């Protein structure tokens, strides 16, 4: 980091780099955990269930946007998830002609089982962390989670939900 940067710019640069590293590390950790578990489910399936669990029922287009897939891809995903009874279509209270997609209890249970399987698979890699490191990991999760929750709430408010 250049010494000529004012303190705020240096801090912003450090924050930007750290957040970038965090995102990359989180993606790597997720891919590693998925490989270790041998899960054959598409990551898009778990991402879709996660979005629905976090946000509640959404229209297909909103769900596709949140899950970062095209609407035709989401249509196929939802069809498969409906067949598995992990999601259901419900009437949209704002528009009787439209549908929303909601996670079912069976889907929430499957998602939780997958999360448990992922975390269990990672325990051996982290079994030797110190209490201080475990506290740091826990605190990092709290910090990131609270910021993401704030962002989700702000986005929902802007969308009028």
Automatic annotation (TrEMBL):
InterPro entries the UniProt entry points to: HTH-type_Bedaq_tolerance, HTH_MarR-typ, WH-like_DNA-bd_sf, WH_DNA-bd_sf
Pfam family, one: MarR
Alphabetical list of SMART domains matching this protein: HTH_MARR
UniProt name for this protein: MarR family transcriptional regulator
Gene source species: Leifsonia williamsii
Record-annotated HTH marR-type domain positions: 12-146
Source superkingdom: Bacteria
């Amino acid at each position: 980091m250049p010494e000529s940067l004012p303190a705020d710019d240096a801090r912003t640069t450090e924050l930007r780099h750290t957040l970038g590293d965090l995102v990359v590390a989180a993606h790597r950790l997720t891919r590693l955990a998925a490989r270790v578990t041998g899960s054959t489910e598409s990551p898009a399936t778990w991402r879709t269930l996660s979005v629905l669990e976090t946000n509640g029922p959404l229209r297909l287009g909103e769900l596709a946007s949140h899950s970062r897939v095209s609407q035709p891809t989401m249509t196929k995903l939802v069809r498969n998830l409906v067949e598995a009874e992990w999601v259901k279509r419900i009437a949209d209270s704002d528009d009787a002609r439209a549908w929303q997609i909601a996670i079912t209890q069976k889907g929430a249970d499957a998602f939780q089982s997958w999360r448990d399987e992922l975390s269990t698979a990672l325990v051996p890699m982290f079994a030797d962390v110190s209490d201080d490191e475990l506290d740091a990991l826990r605190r990092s999760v709290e910090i990131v989670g609270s910021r993401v929750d704030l962002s989700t709430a702000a986005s929902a408010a802007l969308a009028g939900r």
